[in-house]
Amino acid sequence: MSTVQNPKMYDLTQLQALSRGDDSFVTKMIDSFLTNLNEGMEEINEAKSYNDWSTIAKVAHRLKPSFQILGVSSLSDVILHLEKDYLLDDFDEKGYIEIINTFLTSSSILKDQIQQFLHN
């Protein structure tokens, strides 16, 4: 039985340059990212159940810089939509929920990939 591999969703180039070769710094930043991501995913999931779009936008805004440092460019548009779309005059609630679900699913894959990197 073969398993499907998802393409790598992160690029540590920027973080490694920032660390100047300090692997413990890289590990500490990744651990912090994972903690923040777990908390953010829980907050977004809970806020979604209450249609609390402003909380989702705030969490997305808070997560955005760490996604950039870890080179998670594949989710940059998703995060931007989470952050801004609920303010639009023609806000599409159904479409917004789809974006939330995409974020949560993709973030779970990202989390697994990064945890696998840490254990190698």
TrEMBL record:
Entry-linked Pfam families: Hpt
One GO process term, biological-process aspect: phosphorelay signal transduction system
Gene Ontology molecular function: protein kinase activity
UniProt domain HPt: residue ranges: 22-117
Swiss-Prot/TrEMBL keywords: Phosphoprotein
PROSITE patterns membership: HPT
InterPro entries (UniProt xref): HPT_dom_sf, Sig_transdc_His_kin_Hpt_dom
Entry-annotated residues carrying Phosphohistidine: 61
SUPFAM superfamilies: Histidine-containing phosphotransfer domain, HPT domain
Claim: Amino-acid biosynthesis is one of the keywords in the record: no
Protein name: HPt domain-containing protein
